Amino acid sequence: MTFQKSDEESASFDVADLRREYTRGGLRRRDLTDEPLALFERWFRQACDARLADPNAMCVATVDEQGQPYQRIVLLKHYDEKGLVFYTNLGSRKARQLAHNARISLLFPWHMLERQVIVLGTAERLPALDVLKYFHRRPKDSQIGAWVSQQSSRISARGILESKFLELKQKFQNGEVPLPDFWGGYRVTIDSMEFWQGGEHRLHDRFLYQRQPDGWQIDRLAP
């Protein structure tokens, strides 16, 4: 189907003309930390302090068996020196793809701060005890929601989900919601982490941390 724009619409809107200057500040080598997680934590806390919507939202990229990349937004739930953690349905498309290829990319798009962080690494399943501890920290309705959805499967109508949710809410109203055996988590070990800070005249600042046997190699990248 082809959508026709009026001459007035065509004259007033052109995606190629959407641009702005990035003026919030640069990123210099003196601002860097010896290892990337410390700088990530600083930026993450600043994103939280700036009251960005969903500062822990990250775009998670995986690849299927045919080499087709897929991306989706997932919420970061923990990070430490071991890596970055998220949770998901183990029957989901992302989980199936990670079972085939554990290489993964994460992107944090902190647009309002004119920043982004890219993580490359490997995803590994979390131990069941770690998953259980987090599952019972979730609101009860979210726990029930995990039981309702066979993520990425085809459904005929939203009403199916809503009916199942109400059925399970009634079932578990007076008791603890058990952990589904098809729900789990992943820890992404960090092989590299790139920090991007917008700059004037498109002269952005980019620094890449790459893991080496004896520490981290840090390089400035051209914008």
Automatic annotation (TrEMBL):
Q: Which PROSITE patterns match?
A: PYRIDOX_OXIDASE (PS01064)
Pathway this chain belongs to: Cofactor metabolism; pyridoxal 5'-phosphate salvage; pyridoxal 5'-phosphate from pyridoxamine 5'-phosphate: step 1/1; Cofactor metabolism; pyridoxal 5'-phosphate salvage; pyridoxal 5'-phosphate from pyridoxine 5'-phosphate: step 1/1
Is Oxidoreductase one of the keywords? yes
Residues the record lists as binding substrate = 19-22, 77, 134, 138, 142, 202-204
Which cofactors does it use? Answer: FMN
* Keyword flag Flavoprotein: yes
Task: Give the domain of life.
Answer: Bacteria
Q: Which residues form the Pyridoxine 5'-phosphate oxidase dimerisation C-terminal domain?
A: 183-223
Q: Cite the GO molecular-function annotations of the record.
A: FMN binding; pyridoxamine phosphate oxidase activity
- Which Gene3D superfamilies does the record associate with it? Electron Transport, Fmn-binding Protein, Chain A
Q: Which reaction does it catalyse?
A: pyridoxine 5'-phosphate + O2 = pyridoxal 5'-phosphate + H2O2; pyridoxamine 5'-phosphate + O2 + H2O = pyridoxal 5'-phosphate + H2O2 + NH4(+)
InterPro entries assigned: Pyridox_Oxase, Pyridox_Oxase_CS, Pyridox_Oxase_N, Pyridoxamine_oxidase_dimer_C, Split_barrel_FMN-bd
Q: How is the cofactor bound?
A: Binds 1 FMN per subunit.
Q: Which parts of the sequence bind FMN?
A: 72-77, 87-88, 93-94, 116, 151-152, 196, 206
The text of the family note is:
Belongs to the pyridoxamine 5'-phosphate oxidase family.
| Record's function text | Catalyzes the oxidation of either pyridoxine 5'-phosphate (PNP) or pyridoxamine 5'-phosphate (PMP) into pyridoxal 5'-phosphate (PLP).
Protein name as catalogued: Pyridoxine/pyridoxamine 5'-phosphate oxidase
Give the organism the record lists.
Affinibrenneria salicis
